[in-house]
Amino acid sequence: MENVLDKILEKLQSLEEGQHETRKAFQSLEVGQHETREAVQSLQVGQNEFRKEMAEAISTLNKKLDHISEQVSQNTVYQIHMNNLSKKVEGLEIDIKVIKKAITNQ
Q1: Separation in Å, CA 82 to CA 53, 55, 62, 86, 88
Q2: Residue-by-residue pLDDT tens, the chain, 106 positions
Q3: In sequence order, what DSSP letters do the residues of the chain get, joined into one string?
Q4: Distance CA 104, CA 70 (A)
Q5: What is the pTM of this model?
């Protein structure tokens, strides 16, 4: 009978040791879980900062593109005026040549 009780005590001690090790493992997991939460929170903060920086950069680029578009429009209008003036100058050059010929032929 004593033998049976000793075996039961051994099993109980073995179970208690297993339980103790399981508690340690859970505590370790909880620590790891806490560290993981902190890392995720840190990543979220970094991600939010990155989004904010990207939004500001995109806004700046949009303003620059708007400015470039306005400049291109103005340049196009100026180019049309310059082309018209160039045609008029060409016409005047021809007129001057005709007048010079008329004067020299007299």
Answers
A1: 43, 40, 30, 6, 10
A2: 778 777 888 888 888 888 999 999 889 999 999 999 999 999 999 999 999 999 999 999 999 999 999 999 999 999 999 999 999 999 999 999 999 988 988 7
A3: -HHHHHHHHHHHHHHHHHHHHHHHHHHHHHHHHHHHHHHHHHHHHHHHHHHHHHHHHHHHHHHHHHHHHHHHHHHHHHHHHHHHHHHHHHHHHHHHHHHHHHHHT-
A4: 51
A5: 0.53
